[in-house]
Design brief:
11 helices
């Protein structure tokens, strides 16, 4: 669930900064203007073959108190200045439009842009082309967009914008992307009583941080910090990786306000103290409606875990999450009446229901590790953007933000990651919470299993084959299909089931089909698809013999190529396994050839553990060929040094997909 803790900052900011703002000298913003003439910057030879090169990427974060507006507290100006070398058509297509996000923007102070052709011709931005685009469904603040004119191979693009924004205490600046960056600098300018901490991930940077006295004022100081990164290589996205999380970036967090004390602010513990009453504070008015709902759901007769399942299913079925602001969307009573809630309100309903039914539950803040890893050693509220629920009595989790997943499954990106656990504590009548950073374990491989059991029988003329299949899968592997089958319209349900039964013969005629254990309250049972399909796609006649495409019984498989050296570590998202039992009835008067291709073992260990493997065996008894295939991925993360071993396992499955056997006339 996306629940950004920064959304609760305004009250806290007033507490920390209002008194200081009223006393501070006015600090005039830095005058970082758009250069009157383009700067001459040489392209590093190591980037000569790149599609584009970011020659300069300067960000200025300027925080100051305005003596003329003391009630407004800390003011924030954000400036961006970039110079980009354009080397080919792909770069022209990438940079022919510039987007400026407007989230948190109070005012746009300046926008400039120009292109410089190889012969020195300058084309300035036509300001009439600047347009504002609203986000879909009115969410967020949209963005400004303008077209760039005059781009050609060998040209340069330079653009600049300066924004007045709402004050933020924590932010992320990504240094790396698909094109190299020769120079990036982040300038942080703030009153001397404030201090930001920062940390660089997935790369190296240099920084300076110093206080200096304002001219004409002996007691007014400002802090000046610069984070510099140079010659950052471009990074391409690769399969089975966490591309965004592995990019070089800087996390920046306001850490101290010396005007109110020397202790660090915006810690994980302060986040817990801030959010505890918002989540856990009991609303006496909600007691009766919560008891009434519990009675209607028949929770009193259920086991504790079944109570969790029924509460979750009711909330996810009846109370959609909305982005609308307002107290009614976090008030438990109003939510139960209107059946609409913000993310905070949904969690409040969960906690009230669990407490009323004797179930201990903890809120856990974490990140989606496909976007950014939770770092326990650098305390920034940027890592507190996602929230899930933990049940210590069962050591299981619930994902309140996903209508697709059900207890105990959560989004895979939240697992194999750290999280901040909010544990309620009581001292007499006083209640509070303590925060502890702990690992959120991945879902066990046995919980994410897929089994295909297929029996193939040819018709008398051997020009078609009937495949009777049982396809079962569990955990995260089953969640999307189970959810879809419950909420699709009747004709769409039929279409989905048809596709699942025809997985190996898209042109086949369905003889029978059914889905079992599809109810959302049966999520810990395997989702089963049973069916029979008849078709010709698996057969190819060659004279008297018949070619049977047995490998297609696996369904489509991923093939992994790697022309360049691997850049990223491997990430499978979740541990999982696949088992296939393929049975082929051999027609009377025929024998099989090409069977040796069905045997294959590709596997490897990592850190003393069976990591990944593909094992295929076969046997023939009487007129029945049975092929047993086991494919497993018992680890989520592997270093790139193991990529070649990993690639061989992935490709072993793809290679089997291409195998044919021959039925020879005796």
């Amino acid at each position: 669930m996306t629940l950004n803790i920064k959304s609760v900052l305004p009250v806290l900011l007033m507490t920390l900064f209002f008194a200081q703002a009223s006393k501070a000298q006015f600090i005039k913003p830095e005058d970082f203007a758009f250069p009157s003439t383009p700067e001459k910057i040489e392209v590093n030879k190591k980037f000569a073959d790149a599609s584009a090169v970011v020659l300069k990427d300067i960000r200025i974060l300027n925080f100051f108190y305005d003596k003329d507006k003391p009630k407004e507290g800390l003011q924030s100006f954000y400036t961006t200045h970039k110079v980009i070398q354009i080397n080919d058509t792909r770069a022209i297509e990438s940079y022919n439009k510039i987007y400026i996000p407007l989230s948190g923007v109070i005012d746009i102070l300046d926008i400039r842009a120009r292109t410089i052709s190889p012969n020195g011709t300058i084309v300035e931005l036509n300001r009439s082309t600047i347009k504002e685009i609203q986000n879909k469904e009115g969410e967020g603040n949209g963005y400004k967009i303008f077209a760039v004119e005059g781009l050609e191979k060998g040209s340069r693009l330079e653009y600049y914008f300066k924004l007045k924004k709402e004050f933020e205490t924590s932010f992320t600046i990504v240094t790396q992307g698909s094109v190299p960056v020769q120079l990036q600098q982040i300038h942080i300018i703030c009153p001397g009583n404030l201090k930001f901490d920062y940390k660089t991930y997935n790369g190296k940077s240099e920084s300076v941080d110093s206080l200096f006295t304002e001219e004409g004022s002996a007691d007014s100081k400002r802090r000046f910090a610069v984070i510099t990164s140079t010659n950052v290589p471009g990074k391409d996205e690769e399969k089975y990786s966490n591309y965004n999380a592995d990019l070089m970036r800087h996390e920046i967090q306001l850490a101290y306000n010396y005007a109110v004390g020397k202790s660090r602010i915006y810690t994980y513990n302060s986040a817990v103290q801030r959010m505890y009453p918002m989540f856990y504070e009991n609303d006496p008015k909600a007691t009766k409606p919560i008891q009434k709902l519990s009675s209607e759901l028949g929770l009193g007769k259920l086991s504790p875990e079944d109570k969790i399942r029924h509460i979750e299913n009711y909330i996810k079925t009846n109370i959609p999450e909305v982005k609308t602001e307002g107290p009614d969307y976090i008030d438990v009573v109003k939510i139960l009446q209107k059946r609409l809630a913000r993310s905070t309100g949904l969690i409040r309903v969960y906690l009230h229901m669990f407490a009323a039914n004797g179930i201990t539950c903890q809120v856990v803040y974490t990140t989606d590790r496909t976007k950014v890893w939770f770092d326990p050693d650098f305390e920034t509220w940027n890592f507190l953007d996602e929230s899930i629920l933990y049940f210590p009595d069962f050591d299981k989790y619930l994902d309140p933000g996903s209508i697709v997943l059900r207890y105990p499954e959560v989004l895979p990106g939240y697992t194999a990651n750290n999280g901040l656990f909010m544990e309620e504590v009581s001292v007499g009548k006083f209640k509070s919470a303590m925060g502890t950073v702990k690992k959120i374990p991945p879902s066990d491989v046995s919980k994410n299993a897929e089994i295909i059991d297929a029996y193939c029988k040819f018709n008398n003329s051997l020009d078609s084959v009937n495949v009777t299949v049982t396809h079962s899968y569990t955990g995260g592997l089953a969640s999307n299909d189970r959810f879809a089958y419950n909420y699709l319209q009747k004709d769409e349900k039929k279409k989905l089931l048809d596709e699942l039964v025809r997985f190996c013969m898209p042109d086949g005629k369905i003889i029978s089909e059914e889905m079992l254990n599809y109810d959302m309250l049966e999520c810990e049972k395997p989702l089963e698809i049973k069916g029979e399909v008849r078709g010709t796609a698996l057969i190819e006649k060659t004279g008297k013999d018949v070619l049977f495409k047995i490998g297609d019984l696996l369904g489509p498989q991923t093939e992994l190529y790697q022309e360049k050296p691997r850049e990223s570590d491997i990430d499978m998202q979740l541990e999982n396994s696949q088992t296939r039992i393929l049975k082929v009835e051999i027609p009377e008067g025929y024998k099989l050839s090409g069977l040796e291709a069905l045997k294959n073992t590709v596997k490897f260990d990592y850190e003393g553990k069976e990591a990944c493997g593909f094992i295929a065996t076969y046997e023939v008894k009487g007129n029945l060929l049975t092929v047993n295939i086991t494919e497993y991925y018992n680890v989520i993360r592997l270093p790139k040094s193991e990529f070649e071993n990993f690639r061989k396992v992935i490709n072993a499955s793809a290679d089997f997909n291409k195998i044919n056997i021959v039925l020879e006339k005796i």
